[in-house]
Specification:
Largest sheet: 7 strands, mixed
Number of strands: 7
Shape: globular
Structural class: alpha+beta
Strand content: 25-35%
Number of helices: 4
Radius of gyration: 15 Å
Helix content: 10-25%
């Protein structure tokens, strides 16, 4: 269980319910970068061009659930070696295993823990799912979220 939602300094879950969200899967290394305020995606991924205001994060470990979301504040294109949100260690940990192409780095505000995580009752999140903040708040399971989302 992620205990962020019980922290005294956790940001309020006050995003507009109708705001559009992109839900993505994160491994532990990627989720730690999300805590630092960014998430990279190869430029060829559809999500880099999609219109949404928030990102939500399905964590593969130590829990298997959507646990947090954040307001997107910027989208920065970056190539390895260029100045930008990611440094060499980020490239090695997050991009090298998957791609060598230019990326779009989503930058965002502080992560907001969901009051109730969206638990995995499927095979996780593949690709990107699009829903609303209200959908995140109302869905108890991934299958319930999938039924509300565009995949």
């Amino acid at each position: 269980m992620d205990l962020d939602r019980f922290a005294a300094d956790a940001p309020a879950d006050d995003a507009p319910g109708d705001a559009r969200v992109c839900v993505v899967a994160t491994r532990p290394d990627t989720f730690e970068r999300c805590r630092e305020g960014f998430y990279p995606a190869p430029r060829s991924y559809d999500r880099t061009r999609a219109d949404f205001e928030y990102m939500a994060f399905y964590r593969t470990a130590p829990v298997s659930a959507v646990t947090h979301y954040a307001r997107v504040t910027a989208r920065t294109e970056q190539t390895r070696g260029e100045r930008g949100p990611m440094d060499e260690a980020d490239w090695a940990a997050l991009i090298d295993p998957f791609s060598e192409e230019r990326v779009v780095v989503f930058e965002f505000a502080t992560l907001v823990p969901l009051d109730r995580p969206v638990e995995n009752d499927l095979h996780g999140v593949r690709g990107a799912w699009y829903c609303t903040v209200a959908d995140l708040r109302e869905a108890a399971t991934l299958s319930g979220l999938r039924d509300r989302a565009e995949t």
